[in-house]
Structure formats: structure tokens, C-alpha cells
Design goal:
The protein is an alpha/beta fold and 301 residues long. The protein has ten helices and 18 strands. A seven-stranded mixed β-sheet has the order 6-5-4-3-2-1-18. The chain has a seven-stranded mixed β-sheet with strand order 7-8-9-14-15-16-17. A two-stranded antiparallel ribbon has the order 10-13. Helix 3 crosses helix 4. The chain is globular, with a radius of gyration of 21 Å.
């Protein structure tokens, strides 16, 4: 059975706290694992969350600030130590190639795994598989930053009433799905479009076109909310979002489940992020993330 869930490894911004590790997030999508923004301590958080190096197929780095990338060295070395049998692909801003190189070869180790470097230089599709299309959009931050969006291809949902009306059942249903036609009956006659699931990961950024494009129609949106609304000017100066801004993006984009993360250490009450997000008018499912949380991707509509 396919598993689609989001595993939170760390939720702190800039510096870790007693209760929050640096950033780190894993998306399990069927048989693949995509690791986002491995900050310092990610390898240990993976152990605590039951995530193995063998679970990783892609690594996606939004930008090269330390809280989003210093864990790369340990993760890459662990992939090699454990001799992961499949190819692992790394996506990151091309402008930060020198940082990636330094982290990849931070110390001596034996390379045993094929790690494919696939840097991002512009908006567009990064990969297309039978299960998803992965794309990137540029964000607005003091250093070049990209958000990531994963979209499942649309499928078709069979309609039992129409199948019965045409006298189709048993193995013939599968044949119709495979071939698209059974006698005079087409697949469109007895089914409807089943919208593919959509996920987006938006880290350090001000409000910009890329944020809205990534969030549009998402079933699950993971987005930074470093600041509370009373510090909106500070957020803009440092290239971040507030809880209210993140929630307004989700509201306007029709997001089903919003996950807020990347919190400044200056705020002692995480519930205030939820209160401000609700005040901004977001009415969908809302989660204020904490370390080692697991969030299932919402079921298809």
C-alpha cells in the first residue's frame, strides 16, 4: 500500500532551541523519499523519526543558509556509509554550487553511492516520474532561494453506476482502464477525472509570485512563518513571512492542509501562530509543526 506522509525533523529558524532542531523535512511519496533542507542535526533527527538513509531518493535544498543546509555533509556521508543501492539526486540553487561542493566534500570519506547533482537555475520542471512531477519556483530572500512543488498526474475514477448501466464488470473493468475502450464504451463514458494530489514546500521568502504559484490548489502546503504579524516589517527586511501572510497565501490558493514551520526563537507561545493564521481567514486544516511530527497527505478529493 502506498504511503504519502510528511515527516518533520526540525522546525527552528536560524538557531536550534531546546525543543526545536534546525530544519529538516522528509516527504514520503509512495516508494520514494524526498529530503528537504537538511539543517544541522538532521542525521540524528532521522534516527529519532525512524527515517533511514535508504529511504532517500532526492534531496531538495531551498537555499544555502546554514539552518537549511549544514546537515548536508552528514546526510551525504551517511548515504555512502550505508551504501544506499539506488541513485540519489540533489537539487539546489546553482548559484550556491560552491557551498554544495564544500558540504559534499567537507571531510574525507569513501564514496560508494551515485549522487547526481541537478542544480536549479530557473523556474521549471526538475523531474517527471509516473508518480509525480517536481518543479521549482524562485522565491524572494537575501540569497537565491527556490521553493518546490510536487504534482501527481491526474487519473480517472471509475463510476459504478455507469459501469452497471453498460453491463461492464469483473475483469472487463480493468481491460477498459488499460485499453481505453471496450466495444462501443469508452473510458470517458464510465469514469471522471480524479485530480492528482499536490504538495508544496516554501521556505525563506517574502511574499512574491513564486509563493502563490507554488501554493495554488495544494492538498498539503508546508510554509515558513518565521515571524508573528506584529513584526511584519522585520519579516520583510529579513526576507521572511509572518503567520498571517502564510495563512492568507493558503486561503487564497485553496489549500486543504496548511503546515506552518520555521519559527523564530523570540516567540515562546507556538499557539499564537495558529491564532494569527485563523485570524487571516484560513479555514482548512491547520498544523503548527513541531519536531518529529508526522502529517499524512490528505486523501484525494
Amino acid at each position: 500500500m502506498s504511503v504519502r506522509e510528511f515527516v518533520v525533523l526540525g522546525t527552528a529558524s536560524q538557531v536550534p532551541t531546546r525543543h526545536r532542531n534546525h530544519n529538516g523535512y522528509l516527504l514520503r511519496w509512495d516508494g520514494e523519499g524526498i529530503l528537504f533542507d537538511p539543517g544541522e542535526g538532521t542525521q540524528r533527527q532521522m534516527l529519532r523519526a525512524g527515517v533511514a538513509a535508504h529511504d532517500l531518493n532526492r534531496i531538495c535544498v531551498t537555499h544555502f543558509h546554514g539552518d537549511h543546509s549544514l546537515g548536508l555533509a552528514g546526510v551525504i556521508q551517511r548515504i555512502n556509509l550505508d551504501q544506499v543501492p539506488h541513485e540519489v539526486t540533489a537539487h539546489y540553487p546553482r548559484s550556491g554550487q560552491r557551498f554544495f561542493d564544500r558540504l559534499r566534500y567537507a571531510t574525507a570519506y569513501r564514496e560508494t553511492v551515485r549522487l547526481t547533482e541537478a542544480p536549479v537555475a530557473a523556474d521549471g520542471v526538475l523531474a517527471a516520474t509516473p508518480s509525480y512531477t517536481l518543479e521549482a519556483r524562485k522565491l524572494s530572500h537575501p540569497v537565491e532561494s527556490y521553493g518546490y512543488r510536487l504534482t501527481e498526474p491526474d487519473g480517472r475514477r471509475m463510476l459504478p453506476g455507469r459501469l452497471a448501466a453498460h453491463g461492464i464488470g469483473g475483469p472487463d473493468v480493468g481491460r477498459l482502464q488499460r485499453e481505453g475502450r471496450l466495444g462501443d464504451v469508452t473510458l470517458e463514458d464510465v469514469s471522471e477525472v480524479r485530480r492528482g494530489q499536490r504538495f508544496a514546500f516554501v521556505m525563506d521568502t517574502r511574499l512574491c509570485d513564486g509563493v502563490h504559484a507554488l501554493a495554488e490548489g495544494c492538498d498539503l502546503l508546508v510554509i515558513e512563518s518565521t515571524f508573528l504579524d506584529e513584526d511584519v516589517a522585520l519579516a520583510a527586511d529579513h526576507g521572511h513571512l509572518t503567520a498571517g501572510q502564510a495563512a492568507a497565501v493558503a486561503r487564497d490558493a485553496g489549500v486543504r492542509h496548511l503546515v506552518l514551520t520555521h519559527f523564530s526563537q523570540r516567540y515562546p507561545d507556538p499557539e499564537e501562530f495558529e491564532r494569527q493564521a485563523r485570524a487571516a481567514g484560513f479555514e482548512g486544516e491547520l498544523t503548527v509543526a513541531y519536531d518529529l511530527l508526522r502529517v499524512p497527505v490528505p486523501k484525494r478529493r
